[in-house]
Amino acid sequence: MSPARSALLLAGLMASAGLAHFAAPRQFDAIVPGSLPGGPRAWTTASGVVELALAAGLTLPATRRASAHATALFFAGVFPANVKMAYDWRHRSTTARAVAYARLPLQVPLILWARHAGMPDVRRGPVGDHG
User: Fold this and answer.
1) Could you give the angle at the alpha carbon of 93 between the alpha carbons of 92 and 96, nearest 5°?
2) Would the pTM of this model clear 0.85, i.e. be above it?
3) Sign of dihedral through CA atoms 30, 26, 109, 35?
4) For a Cys staple, 58 with which of 2, 11, 15, 16, CB 3.0–4.6 Å?
5) pLDDT tens digits for range 80-107
């Protein structure tokens, strides 16, 4: 898949996640690490705004590369929330625990996806066409 197409799909994911922070904020509030200053809702709102801004940046060729790098950093930055969720859900049902634990290694392919989305989109013509 081309980096440009990958970036647009990633933008869709980021926009969906960003909107979810406003549509159902309590689920995000619950995974904000308590060691962060301020209240969980402030962090939920801020991360939703950041996700929407990253989504917008991924859609524009002029800002795609910088936004893709920032998206990779964002995925790394929210990892502590996923760790908190896995810890908090350790006594829930097997299905809930599986969901929480699956989020942990999922950060790696998300980071790699963001890095791919930021690569130059080199389009090649037919074989032999180097013009």
Assistant:
1) 80
2) no
3) negative
4) 11
5) 888 988 999 999 999 999 999 998 999 9
